[in-house]
Structures are given as C-alpha cells and as structure tokens.
Amino acid sequence: MIQCVDCEYYRSGSDGTPRLTCSPFANIKEPECVAKWQLVHLNLISQSHQATLDMYRQLAPLQERMFRHMERELDESDEADRWKHDDDEEDEDKDEPFKL
C-alpha cells in the first residue's frame, strides 16, 4: 500500500494537516485512499460545523437583545391600540338588550 506522503496528490498544509488533491471519482490509486479521503473530508466538515457553532454563540446575545426589543415594541403597539378594542367591547354591550 502506498503512503499518502509518497503520493503525487498529497500536499501538506501550512499547519501540517494533510491536503489530498485526489478525487475519489477520477484518480484514486488504491482502495484505502477512499477511506483516507473520507476521513480528511469528515474532519473538514467537523471543523466547519464547529466554526458555525462558534459564530452562533457570538451572535446569541445580540439575537436575544433584538427579540426583547421587538417584544417591547409589539407590547407598546398593542397598548397604543387597546383603546380601539375597548370601545368595540363597550359598543357590543350597548347593543345587547336587557335580560329579564
């Protein structure tokens, strides 16, 4: 079995991580290469997911503040429109006949 370091499609990253430029659909030399390629790309997906989670953690406080502000605005709007609903309820009471 050929080692990845000896392969023509192997590149070493600046931080020492392996960079496989081979494609499993075009130029795989050995069957074990597919498994190695999958592991490297699974690691890449994991790192991308972790970076996304870190970004969401940074945005969470801002998002909470935005929700609180929107709730406050909606409550103020409802409070300002309450007089419309109060008048409607009083009109409905006047329209009902007296019950004996």
Strand ordering within the main sheet: 1-2
Any idea what the radius of gyration is? Answer: 32 Å
Which percent band covers the strand fraction? 5-15%
Tell me the domain tally: 1
Major sheet details: 2 strands, antiparallel
Strand tally: 2
Report on this structure:
With 100 residues, the chain is mostly helical. It has one domain. Helix content is 64%, strand content 6%. Strands 1-2 form a two-stranded antiparallel ribbon. The longest helix is centred in the middle third of the chain and has 50 residues. The protein is rod-shaped and about 95 Å long. The termini are far apart.
What is the element layout, followed by pairings?
Blueprint (H helix, E strand, L loop, with lengths): L9 E3 L5 E3 L10 H50 L1 H14 L5
What descriptive keywords fit this protein?
100 residues, mainly alpha, two-stranded antiparallel ribbon, 2 helices, 2 strands, 64% helix, 6% strand
